[in-house]
Amino acid sequence: MLQNNRLENLIVSIGGGHGAGCYETSLHLKESILKMFPNSRIRVLNLDDMKDASTLNYDFTDYDFKSLHRELLKQPTEGDTTGKMKEPICINILCGGYALYDKEIRDASKLKVYLDSDADKRLINLIQTQNITQPKDLSVLLTEYLHHLREESLKYIEPTRVYADLIIPCKNESLASAILLDGINKAVEEMKTPLSLGDQETHNPLTKKTSLLNFEAERIDVQKGRYYDLA
């Protein structure tokens, strides 16, 4: 049983380039989590919904990471839950290109994931997700992609892959969801494990790391960081 019946915040950050399918994967993951923990509270926070499209700089300054960090750590109120929760867990899924960019948010995340994809695949996904059918709209998107999005991805987003615990090919949402669900299940079980008195005094469920997945043989070093590359 978790201590004092408090809702424990578990943060999962899912990053990837424009059109990598971060939001779609997050929604798929949410559905899977609800099947495993039907009484948990799950929020999907999409970074693409947190920027002002009229004043884009196409870099990290488009986001208020300080406010986002506070929102992720905020304890849910009773009104945020439905019914009496058997699993007092609040799972926040942060998704978007800059999900792995901010250090404070990375440190608070129990699991950090990067969805990998080549540029052509991401462009096709962008066209499909925006339901573009008119030549004029396609021209606008291609101009934005060539002049802004591609450079932004190369300069700011792709470098964050070195911070990921897992790198997963974006072409299979079901595979990504299954792998992530296994890691989340382990994290939740760790949170539910009773602590000794001494451990309780120093325990911080937001930053304590868990051993995720049984892929130790595939672990490799990248720029002094450690992550799993499943691509």
Automatic annotation (TrEMBL):
GO terms for molecular function: ATP binding; kinase activity. Gene3D superfamilies: P-loop containing nucleotide triphosphate hydrolases. Residues 72-171 form the Phosphoribulokinase/uridine kinase domain. Pfam families: PRK. It comes from the Eukaryota. This is Phosphoribulokinase/uridine kinase domain-containing protein.
